[in-house]
Amino acid sequence: MPKTDPVGDMQMSKAPSLLRLQNVSKSFQEGSRERIILDSVSLTVKPGEIVVLLGKSGTGKTTLLNCIGGIDLPSDGQVFIQETNVTLLSEQERTLFRRNHIGFVFQFFNLLPTLSVEENVLLPLELKKGRLTREDRGLAMELLDSVGLGDRLKSFPDRLSGGEQQRIAIARALVHDPFLLLADEPTGNLDFDTGLQILDLLEQLSRRNGKTLVMATHSREAIGFADRILTVKGNQLIENSGR
Amino acid sequence: MGPILWKSFFRSLFHHPWQLVFSLIGVALGVGLVVSIDLANDSAKLSFKLSTESAVGRTTHHITGSDGTVSADLYRQLRIEKGIRPSAPIVEGYASAVNFPGYSFRILGIDLVVDRPFRAHLTGMENLPLLDLTALISDPGTIILSEDMATSLGLAVGNSLLLRVGSITHKTEIVGLLKPQDRLTKLALANFCITDIATAQEIFHTEDRLHRIDLIIADDKKGTAQLQAIEEFLPQGTEIIRSSTRAEHIETMMRAFQLNLTALSLFALIVGMFIIYNAITFSVVRRRQLIGTLRCLGVTRSQIFTLILTESMIVGIIGTLLGLLIGILLGKNLVHLVSRAINDLYFVLSVNSLEISFYSIFKGMGLGLCATLIASLGPALEATAASPRTIVTRSTIESRVQKMSPKLALSGIGMGVLGVVLLSVSGKNIILSYLGLFIIMLGCIMVTPRLITSIMGALQPIALRVAGILGSYAARSISTNLSRTSIAIAALMIALASTIGVGVMIGSFRTSVIHWLDTLLKADFYVSAPRLVATRGSASLDEELVTRIRAIEGISHVGSYQWFDIVGRQGRTPIGVMEVVAPSRKNYIFKQGNPETIWDTFQQGKGVLLSEPYAFRHNLNAGNNISLRTESGMKDFPVLGVFVSYNSDQGVVMISRTLFKKFWHGKGVSALWLYAEEGADSGAIEQKVRNLIPPGQTVEIRSNKLLRLETLRIFDRTFAITAVMRLLAMIVAFIGVITALMALQLERQREFGILRATGFTPYQVSGLILVQTGLMGVVAGLLAIPVGLITALVMVFVINRRSFGWTLQLDASPEIFLHAVLLAILAAILAGVVPAIKIAVSPVSAALRDE
Ligand SMILES: Nc1ncnc2c1ncn2[C@@H]1O[C@H](COP(=O)(O)OP(=O)(O)OP(=O)(O)O)[C@@H](O)[C@H]1O
Ligand SMILES: [Mg+2]
After folding, report:
1. 10 Å Cβ neighbour count for B317?
2. Is the CB of A184 inside a 6 Å radius of any atom of ligand 1?
């Protein structure tokens, strides 16, 4: 069991939380200079919440998501997902944690170009369970149907449009039933309408499956369906209370 | 790991099939060369071993005299008076088949009546009809051959076969054929020719003497007592020798020769490793996106590691199998070169076929797989060590290499020093010497990245002026892609340096030999019996002929030479008996000793001269004493001097005729050299000599020019295998470099696509690629010059000396260096052609999407 810091954490630990950041800081070494990106950021996200991260380019949204997903480690502070302190895990444990409990959607390079659409979606399941059953395939099929691409199973990603690729990425992020969905500008390189469709799909699927979603985006439209909106600004995370 | 994960990784292999092909070529060629040399060496060794074993049979000990003969009386005494049985007399030697050039036979003269316990089981003579055997004993000049050999020469029982020993041709008749049952015995007996002892004595002109007396002595108390008794009975100058040591002594003779070939072939494997390393690194770099995504999805480091290693091992296995195939095919051709070189240098050896030993195949497989594993370990670790984020950024690798390069260079210098230290403390050990050379080369590789940055920094302004911004960009991006460019450049540099090293070594050798021949060959004519082993003239000229040649009018001086071996427990000591005449004295170059006084002392029989390799091998110097076995036991002789001779790497102990007559017995002369009187018509003298040769004798009469030419021809022949290996290694290097550079450029298709999109014309981008690979070729060529020189120095002054005992004059002819640089540039430009065409003909969009 990860130990928690007893000080300054009283109210937060009371509420049932899925994700909890505690004084997370992140800085990068560039040459001899140290650049601080995040400075003691704290956040609690309840299960099933949809959180949207806003902020100008270069402010640290991707950095924050990477710290949450265990792709990167914070320089300081802790990240809890469920009851697990991700920051205390070893590289190997973090990888396995990610594999089992987190789903990712990125802006670029989402799909593996060497795998067909169906295989792309099945890969996280295979990683998690080792062997695939007929039901697993059914599940993948169902998910692909729900993103409207049930007829493209055997296609390879380079034959798909950007929007189609993003829809498959969403199916893939959900297939292994993760606690937490992380999306980094999923609509970043899509046209306005397609972007809206993708956002819709993400919201729908998250809500329907009861997933917690943290999404970084520039898209104002995302604000419409968010439960909470946060902005990264000046190395801090600011809660937008009024819409 | 599940099938989808495997697929995600392996499918990309087939998206870039040329990548696969390059790696396969790298492994296959490297393994192929090693296996071919190994098989050729082993075939030579096996053929020698089998033939020796068959000749030895069940013999445990044999008795022989210091000059390699014993009197037949001794045999009779041992057998009849002392009752030592089983015992058998042997007269043996080599003869060439006059009508079948290139074929030589090992003639084994035995006494059929007593020989059965020794060899009957091997030769299969038990199965021969009695009549044939009777003919062998009763009819002189009759022989038995192996059936295979007879068939391949188109001979049958009743046919005659002309055999030449020395200058004299003997007519023999085949009265039977051996039909060995198993394959190995067939192989062993292939060039055997069995005769009765009387026929052999006739052929070898030994009169009443034998070459040895074979014995079978039990390894027990009784046997020890018997040995003791024989030992006491033996007269001075004869010795009883354990038969197994004979083969060992001869095998060590060719060790250095074979070791050097192996080292050369290993070099090809190292270049092959570079190719693999490059290919795997490339496949990792190209898939960094894929690996990064997989890592984000929760694929662990060890899984990525397994994927990469599995992929490279598959390439390694297929490549190794291909390599084995290449090795066998190549070995079939190399075995002739190897056996011919051994024939020229050491002893008569007839290798008729390539023996494919499982040990060699196994070794080749192990080497191929290990090389692949070692070469792919680095890239595999690199791919897994980085966190999922950093894999995605290529620049981190580059900046790390940039930052590391000065440290790497410093360690490289350290390695160089270490290599030099190893060279200086490794004594005469050839393997350690090669290791030292290898470490020095490794040091040079480590310095390369730093040097490339400096050279490119210096070239950039020049490139800017010559080729504009494009040129400057070409030069700069060599530095910015250092992690990849430095590998390619270093591989090319090392490959070139090695060819320079071997080339300079062969060249220096040749120059030294030419200088030596020019000094040595001053007589007008050289008369000698044909030889089976080019560097050793043990065959004798007919005595009467010698006397008559000496009497020819118009000849002022006649020198003579005779070669024999002192045989003993310590192996063979090659002895040259020389009759030095006044004009010959200044033809010798002395390394030690005073040339002014040396000859008089030598002629008086007050000491011996050593050739340089002999002195080196036995740690002897002028002033030391050398112990030689004579007819009257061991005797010490002072070493008067050490002279230069490139005749044989075993070296020779030269003694005067006076000394020879005093301590050994035996007669005959292998070669004569004739000085014509001043103003005499040399053409007429040559004709006179020719007229003296009776029919049925073959005598070679050569002018000094001709002899010089022939000696050089033999020299080139013994180096043919080395030259071929050098060429093959160069081809491997060439292919390796092309693949490395091509991969580098193909990997940057996307970058070039961006250039095209920004408005560069296809010509400009193609030009950029060619300028860049060309520049890399130039840099590799330039770096190869000093490294090649270092390699050459080590090869000439350390490895060659330790292998063969020769001091060579360094002959670093500029052509060798020039060729290397041109080769580098050619390879580099060729490597640029495919990517340049690809970028020129493919649409910009395709290049941009390439990833
Ligand atoms: N590995 C790294 N080394 C150095 N600096 C980094 C590294 N990764 C990110 N940064 C810096 O951290 C800052 C935040 O980067 P990040 O990618 O998190 O921004 P972002 O908010 O996602 O921007 P965008 O909206 O453009 O995607 C940037 O200034 C970036 O330059
Ligand atoms: Mg970002």
Report:
1. 15
2. no
> How far is Cα of residue B183 from the mean position of the Cα atoms in its chain?
27
Q: B284: which 2 tokens?
A: 């990792």
Q: Is the CB of A107 under 6 A from ligand 1?
A: no
The predicted-structure confidence for B593-605, as pLDDT tens digits, reads as follows: 888 889 999 989 8
pLDDT category at A7 given cuts 50, 70, 90 is very low
CB contact under 8 A, A127 and B2: yes
pLDDT for the residue A185: 85
pLDDT of res. B789:
93
B522 close to B634: Cβ distance less than 8 angstroms: no
Ligand 1 pocket, mutate which of A61, A218, A219, A230 (most atoms under 8 A from CB): A61
Percent of chain B whose predicted confidence (pLDDT) is above 90: 14
State the nearest Cα–Cα gap between A71 and chain B, in angstroms: 6
Per the listing, tokens 């993103």 go with A147
Residue B184 structure tokens = 């190995």
Contact B636, B582 (CB under 8 A): no
Farthest CA pair distance, chain B: 106
B contacts of A123 (beta carbons < 8 Å):
4-5, 8, 297
Closest CA to B270 of B374, B146, B347, B172: B374
What's residue B364's pLDDT? 87
Compute the count of residue pairs across chains A and B with CB atoms less than 8 Å apart.
83
pLDDT digits (tens, 9 = 90+) for A101-140: 999 888 776 788 888 898 889 888 888 888 888 888 898 8
pLDDT of residue A6: 39
Count of all residues that appear for chain A in the document: 243
H-only helix segments in B481-611: 482-520, 543-550, 595-603
Contact B265, B37 (CB under 8 A): yes
Q: What is the pLDDT of residue A243?
A: 46
Q: Rounded to 10 degrees, what is the CA torsion of B783, B789, B792, B797?
A: -140
Which chain B residue has its CA at the smallest distance from A97's CA? Answer: B298
Predicted confidence (pLDDT) per residue in B703-742, tens digit: 888 888 888 888 888 788 888 878 887 787 777 777 777 7
Q: What is the pLDDT of residue A5?
A: 42
The residue among B297, B288, B391 whose CA lies nearest residue A121 is B297
pLDDT tens digits along A72-90: 889 999 999 988 898 998 8
CA B11 / ligand 2 centre spacing (Å): 30
Nearest ligand by distance to the CA of B395: 1
Q: ipTM score here?
A: 0.81
Assign residue B400 a region (left: φ > 0; alpha: ψ between -120 and 50; beta: otherwise). Answer: alpha
A84 in contact with ligand 1, CB cutoff 6 A: no
The ranges of chain B with pLDDT < 50 are: 391-392, 850-851
Phi, psi of A90 (to 5 degrees): -75, 165
Closest Cα to atom 5 of ligand 1: A28
Q: Which pLDDT score, from 0 to 100, does residue B123 have? A: 58
CATH 3.40.50.300 at A48-59+90-239, yes or no = yes
DSSP class of residue B129? -
Kindly determine whether residue B5 and residue A123, on different chains, have CB atoms separated by under 8 Å.
yes
In short, whether A195's Cβ falls inside 6 Å of ligand 1 is no
CB contact under 8 A, A69 and B299: no
Is residue A105 within 8 Å of residue B422, measured between CB atoms?
A: no
Backbone phi, psi, residue B551, to 5°: -90, -5
- Torsion on CA atoms B736, B742, B746, B752, rounded to nearest 10: 150
Residues in chain B: 851
pTM: 0.75
Which chain B residues have any C-beta within 8 angstroms of a chain A C-beta? 2-5, 7-12, 15, 289-290, 292-302, 387-389, 849, 851
Q: Is the CB of A94 under 6 A from ligand 1?
A: no
Q: Where are the domains of chain A?
A: 48-59+90-239
